[in-house]
Amino acid sequence: MSLRKLLLGVIVVILIYVVLFSRALIIETKVENMPRFGEVNFKECPAKIEIKEVRDKIGNYVNFIIHGKTYTLRGFFGEYLYFPEGIFLMAGYPSDPYAPNTDMVFLDSFLNKKWERCLGRSVWFKYYHDGKIILGDGCVYWIEAETGNFKYFCPKTGLITDVKERGCLSYVASAEGYVYLLREYKIEKGTRVAKPWKGENLRALVKVGVGENYIAVIYSFVNPPGDEKRGLCVYTRNLIKLACKRLSYTPGQVAVVNNIIFVKDFYTGQIRAYRVYSLL
After folding, report:
1. Fewer CB atoms < 10 Å away: N or C end of the chain?
2. The overall pTM is greater than 0.85
3. What kind and span of H or E run contains 56?
4. CATH no. of 49-154
5. What is the mean pLDDT of residues 10-20?
């Protein structure tokens, strides 16, 4: 058998596989330019802010001292962030599902209070996007930095592990392995990417990467004995499943550029690239 016929046969087998068993192929590839992963670099806060966390018999609260003025918020832990619209102060009980509240105050660039909010559950900062402060834990909140007005979404089960925005679409991932598609903050569709282990999971990582045409989801579930489920799945922007691939390493972050998926190793930081071949 000639090499040409062998290659043709391999191509035919791949096409049959795509048509019958999957809508796409995910193939590891080499690229020269890798994306930069990491948190958004916020501007340095122009005001000097001192945080004092106080715990006594009355309760837990956090004092934010700014130019001699003190803002007291209830909570075990406090944090502040500086956005183009101003300074965001928040205090609460991160990762405590039974926490009574999350308090927040927003100051303008002249250190005048613009608004304050108290949410009756535990949430914490996820990221900032296009004028919106995004908080999450058991629910996800989109808060307008200018006004303090907000929308929220609570999945039926599982803590929020990731939130990504693309135009009017939002993608929310949960520790139960679900990814939800919301349009204008109203749920449109949900799908389960993978199931965690039964019982306790020492790690339940589900992250989303959003591109122009594709949505990539990575997951890693680890049980107490150390067994791990880990993989990569690719969807259309409307959450139509295209293909999934098991990974030989623990994924930590994911990004999508055109038809290439970039996955960063949780432990080593190595970035691998995967090209998506799809008829959709």
Report:
1. N
2. yes
3. none
4. 2.40.128
5. 56
